[in-house]
Amino acid sequence: xxxxxxxxxxxxxxxxxASETRQILLFFWPTRSDDINAMPVDNPLRRFAxxxxxxxxxxxxxxxxxxxxxxxxxxxxxxxxxxxQKLARHYLQHWWRHAKVTDLEDVKIYETVRREVARVYLHRxxxxxxxxxxxxxxxxxxxxxMAPDAAAWA
Length: 154
Fold this sequence. Notes:
Structural class: mainly alpha
Low-confidence stretches: 65-76, 147-154
Number of strands: 4
Mean pLDDT: 77
Order of helices and strands: EHHHHEHEE
Strand content: 5-15%
Shape: globular
Helix content: 40-55%
Radius of gyration: 14 Å
Distance between the termini: 24 Å
Number of helices: 5
């Protein structure tokens, strides 16, 4: 069982613009595109997106993803690799417990991790949509009994 705590990202550490923020949110919630595209992108929403992306990458490495999966890797949405590289250029050690800066050059996120992050933080996405999101750090989430899937997002 692994407990992961998404990092708190300070305003000066926010890396992603409005378009990239929406792309991150759509990665986790592809069926919520109308809501996501209608949300104003402010620093709290940017922080939320960046924090869950960091947590999902780190969780995938915690599950043992340390090499390429070759033909078993799914890539339905481009851009995740570029975002991983952007995180690598601004690497801050305290954001990561498992992934190293070199791991971010070719980022992968397990589908089980993507689904779990989406499930755990859907309420926070809804709070942003409704304009009532708080500024509290994100709660931890647990990867219990989850095995890495053959499918990963690149």
